[in-house]
Write a structure and sequence with these properties.
By secondary structure, the chain is mostly beta strands. It contains two helices and 14 strands, in the order βββββαβββββββββα. The strands form three sheets. The chain has a seven-stranded antiparallel β-sheet with strand order 1-2-3-11-8-13-6. A five-stranded antiparallel β-sheet has the order 10-9-12-7-14, with no helix packed on it. β2 and β3 form a beta hairpin.
Amino acid sequence: MSQPITSGNFTFTPTSIEGVTIVDVKSYGDARGYFMETYKRPDFVAGGIDVDFVQDNQSASTQGVLRGLHFQIEHPQSKLVRVVEGEVFDVCVDLRPGSATFGKWEGVTLSAENHRQFFIPQGFAHGFYVLSPTAVFCYKCDDVYHPNDEGGLMWNDPSIGVEWPLVEGVELNLSDKDTKHPSFGEWRKSAGL
């Protein structure tokens, strides 16, 4: 694993999966509150993230909601994700054929308090689980959303083995769509991989 790179107010830390990066943000605060930059293209390029973002999204969820694992099939998206209220456990799964980490996952806790961001390049499934009573999740994408191009994987596929930190006593809340995604093996077979 490479060493972290600091550029401007950002520190870019590579993970065990090539291209997936944790971005720590320096904030400036006093008794009135805080200020921070959340994105600055020259610093991100210096940190190894050279992506043209074209769409920003935001969602709100309650504790126990799990969204994922999602991807676009023909129009893959790189994503820069962060939380502006609450806390989530964010996950990506490598779907890049030929990658040394194909089928492996990486996860990180993102919160309004830690200001941490997570960069996920094209070729990954993505999802998150809400740890706090509520959470507001924001993300930048390098391609627009194509509603007829959705793909997904089973959130709890044992062959992937994501270690979701489920909150004890809180009912898991999945969309109907997210209960019907194929396993990693079924997806590989349908994709001819």
